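Example with several molecule types.
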Amino acid sequence: NAGVTQTPKFRILKIGQSMTLQCAQDMNHNYMYWYRQDPGMGLKLIYYSVGAGITDKGEVPNGYNVSRSTTEDFPLRLELAAPSQTSVYFCASSYSVTPNSGNTIYFGEGSWLTVV
Amino acid sequence: TQLLEQSPQFLSIQEGENLTVYCNSSSVFSSLQWYRQEPGEGPVLLVTVVTGGEVKKLKRLTFQFGDARKDSSLHITAAQPGDTGLYLCAGFSPSGTYKYIFGTGTRLKVLA
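Resulting structure tokens for the full complex:
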């Protein structure tokens, strides 16, 4: 099973450039999330989606945009990259919004982004 | 302001010592989950606590959910170097949305 696939794994951007981080899941999950994680810190929610065509802001949405045209894909776009966006980005998906003993949130392997 | 505050932020202890990590909020959570994350990898789920007052054990790790479901703790007995990592609590925001949020994190280093 592929699970949650993120690309690229590493990227260096110049200030002001734009790029899209791709995220795809093959588990037919309705709920998808984008997080950023700075060194030694917890994950901060950027955007999330509860289904195709529905997205909403998380804790730190400024400087980012998302779309959810299909259930499988949830790309994250950085417009006008800034050094403050240097971070590790994780995409995640879940079948249900009620975690219990039998439910799991699946994470991608992360995308390391450096803005110089 | 983080909805889920963890303490301590950093912890460095000797092998064999005991430790407790706390996850606190001013809001009620329907459930909380604990993760461990190693450098270069995504978080790995350790446990989910759902009922107020619930205690769950995973080998040397004991997780407790507060009676009011506003806080949780992770206690490690006889820590080992393999326990080294970033520990995170997480849960769905109590505001009624589907935001799944993480705590501020506790970085643990166990010295041999």
